[in-house]
Amino acid sequence: LPLEIRSEPDKHLEKTTEGRVPVFHHEIVPGYLRTKLDLTLEQHQQSVLEKTAAAPVANGEEKVKELNAMCDQLLEIVRAARDDWLEASATVSATTRQDEAETAKLVAAMAPVTVPSMTPSSRSGKSSVPVRAQ
């Protein structure tokens, strides 16, 4: 900040502030040197502080206990659902197996099946192209 207030433009100040403040005069000094909040903001902050001071501490502690109990219940529900899902997925994976011979038989059986053509001219789906097994 400049050490003196003047009405003439200051090239160094303008360069330092990237052109935002060309002159440091008596009209803008209070705005740039203000250390206190605006009066309306200060009043709002004071009212918030008064409300928080008036609220009983026991009420806040009770709310925290209620929220902790709710979180514990939700955590138990999630853990139970996870355990059920893990059991179900373990059961499914244990009962399913892949047999390459059966897969080859299914692919061979599907060879004569026809699939509707996907060309734009045959939107009705009546045209078909045979699918062959490799």
Question: What gap, in angstroms, lies between the N and C termini?
Answer: 82 Å
Proportion of residues in extended strands: under 5%
Question: Would you report the number of β strands?
Answer: 2
Encode the helix/strand succession as letters. Answer: HHHHHEE
Unreliable runs, pLDDT <50, ≥5 residues?
none
Number of helices: 5
Can you offer a commentary on this structure?
This protein has a two-stranded antiparallel ribbon with strand order 1-2. Helix content is 57%, strand content 4%. It has 5 helices and 2 strands. By secondary structure, it is mostly helical.
Give the SSE map.
Layout (H helix, E strand, L loop, with lengths): L10 H6 L12 H5 L5 H16 L2 H39 L4 H10 L4 E3 L11 E3 L4
Antiparallel strand pairs: 1-2
Briefly say what this structure is:
This protein has 134 residues and is mainly alpha-helical. It is built from 5 helices and 2 strands, in the order H-H-H-H-H-E-E.
Brief descriptors of the model:
4% strand, 134 residues, two-stranded antiparallel ribbon
